[in-house]
Amino acid sequence: MGITSNSPTPQTKCVVSDHRVEVLDVLVNSAIAELSLSLFGKFQAFCPPLDLVKKCVATRWKLKGSVTSSAMANGFFLFSFINQSNMATILTDGPWTYRNSNFLSLCKWKPNLDPWSDLGVVTPMWICLPGLPLEFWNLEILKGITNSFGNFLAIDSITQYKSHLLFVRVHVNVAINTVFPTKVILSLSWTLGFNK
Known about the structure:
Blueprint: E1 2-3, E2 14-17, E3 20-23, H1 25-35, E4 38-43, H2 50-61, E5 67-71, E6 76-81, H3 84-92, E7 96-98, E8 102-108, E9 122-130, H4 139-146, E10 151-155, H5 157-160, E11 167-175, E12 183-187, E13 191-195
C-alpha cells in the first residue's frame, strides 16, 4: 500500500508497507535543522499553563527577536529561537524560574527526545550552596559535593576568588528530573549539615 502527498515532487513521498512507515531522509533532516534552534525544558515543581509561560518568557528573557513557546506532553515545553545567539544566551544566562521558585531545566533539543521518558535528558544548571563553611570552598570538595547529584562543570569566578562569601555557585550537568536536596550532610570525623 502506498501513500503519497498532493505535492508532485518526489522528496515529499512517504511509503507504507506492513505497518512500517518509511520517510525520506530529506524530510527528517529538514525537520532536524529547523528544531536545532530549540530548547527542551521542564519546570521542576509544577507545570504552569502555556499562556503564563509565554508571558514569563516575553518579560524575563528580553531577546532581540522572537521565541516560540509550545507545550508538549508530560509537562515539557519546546522553546524555538530565530538564531543561535538567542538560544545560547538563554541556555547560559539561567537559572530561570517561574514565580521565583519553580526552576526551569533546559537542554538543547536533540532527535528522538521523548517527553514521556525524561530519563537521560540532562541540562547544565547553576546551583547555589548557601552556608557552606569556608574550609569547604575547595575545588575538589565542591566537585565531590556536586557530583553526588550531577556532573561538575565549573565554579563561577566570584566563588573561585571568594569575592563574596554568601554562597558557593557551581555549574553542573543534572538530569532534568533531578529533585535537589534541601540539606546536604558532609561526613567527616564529625557531621556537619548546611541548608540549601
